[in-house]
């Protein structure tokens, strides 16, 4: 085990499937050859979950026990206590990562409503982690095999997201993606930009944003030496990247990115926050309150998140 990176896994919202997918992933032993794992959470709750799904508690490995939950947490319900606890796991993980005690963080899902009820007014993990690390420039991205997607905007109404599709923010996205993903992959990359309108507007027939904002941004970045092209029809470019034609896609709004990621790499895709001074990966799903406590949650994305964190940490 000597020389392997140590990955801190935050437990997420106790009322969701986070504890279950963590227990299943760690107990599987599938990551033992590439990293050490340290779960940051509530040991008593983790052990309850392990027992409920037939996993021996000693298979959890190392747990940093914050002991911040009541004896009973009702599955599938938002609460201030679970939200506050989930925030405390994240805060502790960042402290450990910045002190060098762990090499990267993999996060289980949190409830944004519970987080708010618990006194933390952030849209989600990405914004919370940026706040904790004093990071001003950051982007949400998803990695699923060859498919890597970086988002221009995240949790916005679609009408507001469309308003964000402007030349200057796109230039920033392309430059930022090229810099951060090239460093993570330790090589030069090719970036494709998705169009906003059907068929990338087909020469202006279905919209003007491509001609007015997207193409000028691409041309500007190409003049800087960045290998970027597009805009490409949104209904094909993600599959082309998945098949290896490009290294990353710049997506223009949340669902434009997440629908193809989940369709092509469901249960295997990983959320990666670009721009942080620490490595952070996460599952590509939410708390799944509808199946929480039933023992049927798939843990593939949690495994993928830990594996990618270990891979990226090993390259540092």
Can you tell me about this structure?
By secondary structure, the protein is an alpha/beta fold. It folds into 2 domains: 176 residues, Isopropylmalate Dehydrogenase (3-Layer(aba) Sandwich); 129 residues, 3-Layer(aba) Sandwich (Isopropylmalate Dehydrogenase), CATH 3.40.718. α7 packs across α8. The model has no long low-confidence stretch (mean pLDDT 94).
**What number of structural domains do the residues give?**
2
Strand order of the largest sheet: 3-2-1-4-11-10-5-6-9-7-8
Task: Give me the number of helical elements.
Answer: 11
- Portion in strands: 15-25%
Q: CATH homologous superfamily of the largest domain - what is it?
A: Isopropylmalate Dehydrogenase
Distance between the termini: 18 Å
CATH topology tier name of the largest domain: Isopropylmalate Dehydrogenase
Q: Calculate the mean pLDDT score and round it.
A: 94
Query: Could you say which overall geometry the principal axes of the C-alpha atoms support?
Result: globular
CATH architecture of the largest domain: 3-Layer(aba) Sandwich
Radius of gyration, whole Å: 20 Å
Structural class: alpha/beta
SSE string, helix = H, strand = E? EHEHEHEHHEEHHEHEHEHEEH
Give the quaternary arrangement of the chains: single chain
Helix content: 40-55%
| The CATH class of the largest domain | Alpha Beta
How would you characterize the largest beta sheet?
A: 11 strands, mixed
Beta strands, count? 11
